[in-house]
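Q: How would the C-alpha cells look for this protein?
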Amino acid sequence: MAKVSPLQFFRQVKQEVKKVTWPTKKEVHQSLVMVIVIVAIAATFFFVVDQVLGWIVRTVFSLGV
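A: Here is the predicted structure in C-alpha cell form.
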C-alpha cells in the first residue's frame, strides 16, 4: 500500500465527500417520522409483553404461597 501524505489524504477525502448523494430535507423528514413511529410501536409492544409476563410471574408465585 502506497504511503500518502496527510495533505493528499485530506484532498482525497474532500473529493470523495463531493461524490456523496446527500438526502433531501423531505427524505430526512420522512425517515425521521418512520423511525419515531417504529420506535413507538416497538416500545408499546415490549411494554405490553412485559406487563403480561409480569402478571404471569406474579400469578405463579402467588399460587405457590
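The chain has a mean pLDDT of 94.

The CA atoms of residues 20 and 51 lie 45 Å apart.

Upvote if useful.
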